[in-house]
Amino acid sequence: MIDLSGKAAIAGVFESPRRDALRVHPFALQMECILGALDDAGLTLKDVDGLCAASGDWAEGGSTMDVVELAEYIGIAPTYVNSTDVGGCSYILQAGQAAAAIATGLAEVVVISYAACPRWWPLSSPSFDPFVFPAGPGQYEIPYAPTLISTYGLFARRHMDLYGTTPEQLAQVAVTFREHAAKNPDARLRKPITVDDVLASPMIASPLHRLDCCVVTDGGGAVVMTSRERARDLKKLPVHLIGYGAAVARTQNSQIPDDLTTPAALSGPRAFAMAGVTPGEIDVAQIYDAFTITPMLALEDLGFCGRGESGAFVADGNLTLGGSLPTNTDGGGLSSNHPGKRGIFTLIESVRQLRGEGPGVQVPDARIALAHGLGGTFCSAATAILAR
């Protein structure tokens, strides 16, 4: 156990004096409290690199993406976030976890925040989701009924318009990962496909065809972590986490940067800096691929190619077994499995590659691997660098 005694302290506090906050969104109350506590500590938002928030009760204006939305609302990109929700004691629990984050260098200034407006929040509404309710952050987009796939289609279309990316280049992502899946006996889809096959498949959300979209499967996975010392005495070759970075950005499409930068542009450099390696030293990568546009944006933000150059990077065969960056060697979400949240599988396949245990395609003598995932529609990102 890490001894947290004396490793962290509470430097500022603030309680809102409001007891009736009619038509005030809970995020606005949280902003008031955060600024008040920072002022009490003699700090500003620029000093904050950690954020904890858990407002899971719909009637209190919370959601599963609450901490991401709150970070966007107050205008910060924290290196450490925590949305653990165990009910009324959540914020005491988060204080302990924040102390651990501070003690281990994951953050220097962590804000723990909570606010709710149950006296007026529409308890009788068909949906308590603050993204849906007109007073919430989604009021400018929800009326247009965006879907997950249509949102990714917007990303792809924007990339085409900005950088000349072609449908054929998008399709090459699916073709490459299907090549890898063909040798994985557990992959959902193993039959080889061509670029023409992708372009001939039904259009789902322009410019994304059916084969530009991930498979839908059941599935699961688990990862066991322990100390470096104990791992040496266990059954398998230990694979060490040498770099890690996380970031949150936004939830609303209207807040997407003009150049399509995603939170990977923050999580990636943080992971590389911690690991002391560069993108050119990565032997194999596992990158979240819910749609063909997904890994393309990650390749740019993680530094494997320049802004707008991912289409050509993929078309040149760099993601194949013989390329400069073999990627999604198990077939990825486009061909192997995608039960909903695929981040854990990027870790599992990274470990298998570094052990030489790839179920299908195996990168020879791989020593450094990158696992990268995202949340929502590029709302958050996490990057891990693993090594033998």
Automatic annotation (TrEMBL):
Lineage top rank: taxon: Bacteria
Alphabetical list of InterPro entries matching this protein: Thiolase-like, Thiolase_C_2
Domain Thiolase C-terminal residues, every copy: 245-388
Name of the protein: Thiolase C-terminal domain-containing protein
Upper lineage: Bacteria, Pseudomonadati, Pseudomonadota, Alphaproteobacteria, Rhodospirillales
